[in-house]
C-alpha cells in the first residue's frame, strides 16, 4: 500500500475555528445561531429575519439501573469514549520502535473491548487515527495502516464471539482504497451483533466533523429544503457522522495528557472526563474500574441543579 500521494488528497481542515464561550444553559446555542446566520446568505429568495431559539435535551445515555451512589446514575456509562494515547512513550521507555508501541496498543484495544462488554458498556468509541495524524512521518502512517488491516483480519472472529458490532466515525471516504474496503467489510460482517458497538474514530477530527455537518445543512438551505431559522441543535446532530449514537457519558484519556485533542467536540459537550497517568498499552481492568468508580460519584447536572 503506497501512501505517498495521500497527504495531498487528505481532507482540507480549517486553519482557524471560532471559539464560543457558552453558559451551561446555552450549551451549543451560539454555534447554532452562527450556522443560521451563514445560511441566510445561501437560502434562495428574500432574506427572512425571523429567528427561533431553543435547545434540545442533552442525550446522556447513562444507564439508569443499579445506582448505589445516591445520584441516580449507574457506575457504568452507557457510552464510553477513550483517547488511546501513549503508545510512542511506552515504546520509547522500553527502547523499542514506535511501531512496537502501536502494536501493543492495538492488542490492548482487544482487552478493553472484552472488559467493557463484561461491564455492560453499550457503546465504546476509541480514537484510533486523527485528521492531524497525517502530519506524522510517512513510515509511521504506513505502519499504522498496515496494523489497522491486520487487526481486523486477526481479531474479527473474537469480536464476533463477544457480540461486538464494528462501526467507523470519520472521513472514511478520504482514506486509501484498501482501508476503505476493510472498514466496509468490518461493518457489513458485524451488523447483526448487538452486545456492544465498537466505534473506531478513523481519520476523525471533531472540528472537521462539524464543518462537514454545516456543509450538508448549507446545501439543504441553498436548495430551498430548509430555512435558516429551522436550524436547531438536533439539525446539526442529524448531520454528524453517527447521529443514532448517544453522546458519550465518560471520556477517558490515559498517558497523563489532559486535553481533548479535537475528539468528539460536539458530542462530548457534557461528557465527564477522567485522566490517568498510565500509558495506553498498560491501561487495564484496574484503571477502567477506577474510572468507573470516579464516574459513579460525579453529579451530572447538565446545567441544572442537583436534586435535594
CATH homologous superfamily of the domain at 60-206 and 253-296 - what is it?
Decaprenyl diphosphate synthase-like
* Strand line-up of the largest beta sheet: 3-4-2-1-5-6
Helix content: 25-40%
- Element string (H = helix, E = strand): HHEHHEHEHEHHEEH
Distance between the termini: 60 Å
Examine the coordinates and then state which fold CATH places here, giving the name of the CATH topology of the domain at 60-206 and 253-296: Undecaprenyl pyrophosphate synthetase
CATH architecture call of the domain at 60-206 and 253-296: 3-Layer(aba) Sandwich
Structural class: alpha/beta
Query: Globular, elongated, flat, extended or rod-shaped: what is the shape?
Result: globular
Which spans of ≥5 residues are poorly predicted at pLDDT below 50?
A: 1-25, 45-70
Mean pLDDT: 84
Count, helices: 9
Question: In short, what is this structure?
Answer:
By secondary structure, the protein is of the alpha/beta class. It has nine helices and six strands, in the order H-H-E-H-H-E-H-E-H-E-H-H-E-E-H.
Please name the defining characteristics of this protein:
single chain, about 300 residues, alpha/beta, Undecaprenyl pyrophosphate synthetase, 6-stranded parallel β-sheet, about 40% helix
List the helices and strands and how they pair.
Blueprint: H1 6-9, H2 29-40, E1 79-83, H3 87-93, H4 98-119, E2 123-130, H5 138-161, E3 164-169, H6 177-190, E4 196-204, H7 206-222, H8 233-238, E5 250-253, E6 272-275, H9 285-296
Parallel strand pairs: 1-2, 1-5, 2-4, 3-4, 5-6
Helix pairs in contact: 2-7, 3-4, 4-5, 5-6
